[in-house]
Amino acid sequence: METPLLDGSLTSGDGDYLPVRSFKEIKSMFWIETVKLWKIAAPIAFNTLCQYGINSVTNIFVGHIGNFELSAVAISLSVIGTFSFGFMLGMGSALETLCGQAFGAGQVQMLGIYMQRSWIILLVTCIFLLPIYIFASPILKLLGQEESVADYAGHFTLLVIPQLFSLAINFPASKFLQAQSKVTALAWIGFVALLLHIPLLWLLIFVFGWGTTGAAIAYDITSWGIAAGQVVYVIGWCKEGWTGLSMSAIKDIWAFVRLSLASAVMLCLEIWYMMSIIVLAGHLDNAVISVDSLSICMNFNGWEAMLFIGINAAISVRVSNELGLGRPRAAKYSIYVTVFQSFLIGILFMLIILVAKDYFAIIFTDSKDLQIAVSKLAILLAVTMVLNSVQPVIGGVAIGGGWQALVAYINIGCYYIFGLPLGFLLGYKANLGVKGLWGGMIAGTALQTLLLLIVLYRTNWNKEVEQTSERVRRWGGQEMDKETTVKGV
Predict the structure, then answer these.
(1) Which three-class secondary structure state does DSSP give residue 11?
(2) Spatial separation of the C-alpha atoms in residues 14 and 404, rounded to whole Å
(3) Which residues span the domain enclosing 57?
(4) Contact between residue 394 and residue 411 where contact means Cβ atoms under 8 Å apart
(5) Which of 26, 88, 455, 475 has its CA 20 to 30 A from that of 129?
(6) Is the pLDDT reported for residue 60 higher than 70?
């Protein structure tokens, strides 16, 4: 039977937690895990908030050009941009599983090879996504968008193709750094990029008079600046994980592709689900007001989502590192602490939205009609924020543990078999409009969150530790040391 150490420590000889039973032990464990979580999450969340701020500030500047321009650019960034962002982020998220578990297992030299392998895969992915950008206008028309808005959005989409390719460098580099908890540099790079993006937008849009073309060029320049800054830091300050370009990056690449595709499907099913609201709203009466009001709400929801992407990445790092080190109880306790804190943060965001429901749209628009439309959606936005506080944490656990395929199946059932049809019925058949669309899709998210919590509750973490070494060998490539084993529990 395990007993606490004589010095009062909560950990055993291998660094894993002993069972915590008393309130004092729970409080101590909670504090330890909180510090570990936020040392990783805070810089990552700050970086993602800054990068999302680049997107949001672009919308704000365009919104003051005109409502039509805002609608077109919002559709481009929300539909085409989110589609590609989701797929690219998913393909890059395979690196979170492999780098995190390899780092925990002491295979630090493999991280640079994994990152290079991911660069290759994501650059090829960009080429496959190019037709979506080139034919954005007819695609948007096919989805039911107004012809003039679709044409304008298609033109803007062509101009942001360089930003797509920047993601192929950005995502692998950031995952490489996250796995090693070298996240302070990410925060600084994102902050500097945001600071420079604002005057760049003002210069190109208003001083040069280039309008939305200037917004697109500023978006491209800033995105590539972020990617270049991350690569410079990796090469210059990460000598242990980065040992130079290697031909090993192209060996056993198919195993890596399979995990990347599973990660992409898992995340895309989540991101595209919310994106589909914008598409369906384009078919409602008064489509411009419907799309604009939803876009503003989704923008605020996106700010919260960026915070939880940071927490998602942090819990992914914590779980994958602890599994790689053979510490199942540490992985489990870190999840409990993170879910609890994330839920409290979601409640806080909900209260803020409800208090400010009549005012927050002013940031994006001067139109009174649009401000009123946004205010009517505030309650749904508040509920979404609570649900989205827990769901990304569970997604991070899935990535850290390598459960992407399982979560993808759950997402298909909850989102596309249940939530989306329910939203369609409420929005169109029950004539509830935007509220019906969103309400039905919230029901799908709630069901998905419930099922994932049940999966977490039933997980055998000792078994997860046993499977970690095999996962890294199978998905990461056979050049990894076959004799590397993870300690049992």
Answers:
(1) strand
(2) 28
(3) 39-251
(4) no
(5) 475
(6) yes
